[in-house]
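Researcher: I'd like a candidate sequence for this fold, 149 residues long. If you have to choose between options at a position, lean toward the conservative one.
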């Protein structure tokens, strides 16, 4: 199953590929102050694949806070955060915003609350490595099929 998504203006877009036969998509509403203020509800799966494109990479603002181990990709044009990445052991992992998905059936979303308060940095990275998308490719503007992580 493939699901596309983007920020509001389309500067940052993604194509999420889930395993065939996927019957539900976990949608975790994070309780950190940044996600609460932005309505952050995220999904990821270690078996999924993610391709991220930016029309104007200079119009993407990377934002980090707290442990500074996650990078929120904020569109400078419209302010939407469609993708969050974390580099773990030299490999980029990611989650995508279910609110930025363009074509996911609402009936597939399994919403839940998520709180990571009290989690140490090592625990946080281990959790992300287990649950986030591990096959992440950034496609350069104007180049089809090329990727850089």
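Model: Candidate sequence:
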């Amino acid at each position: 199953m493939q699901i596309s998504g983007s920020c509001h203006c389309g500067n940052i877009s993604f194509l999420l590929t889930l395993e065939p036969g996927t019957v539900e998509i976990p949608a975790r509403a994070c309780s950190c102050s940044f996600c609460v203020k932005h309505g952050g509800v995220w999904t990821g799966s270690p078996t999924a694949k993610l391709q991220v494109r930016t029309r104007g990479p200079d119009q993407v603002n990377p934002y980090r806070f707290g442990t500074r181990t996650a990078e929120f990709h904020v569109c400078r044009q419209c302010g939407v955060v469609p993708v969050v990445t974390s580099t773990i052991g030299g490999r980029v992992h990611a989650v995508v915003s279910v609110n930025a998905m363009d074509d996911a059936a609402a009936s597939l979303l399994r919403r839940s609350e998520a709180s990571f308060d009290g989690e140490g940095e090592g625990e946080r990275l281990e959790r992300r490595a287990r649950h986030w998308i591990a096959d992440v490719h950034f496609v350069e503007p104007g180049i089809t099929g090329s990727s850089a992580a």
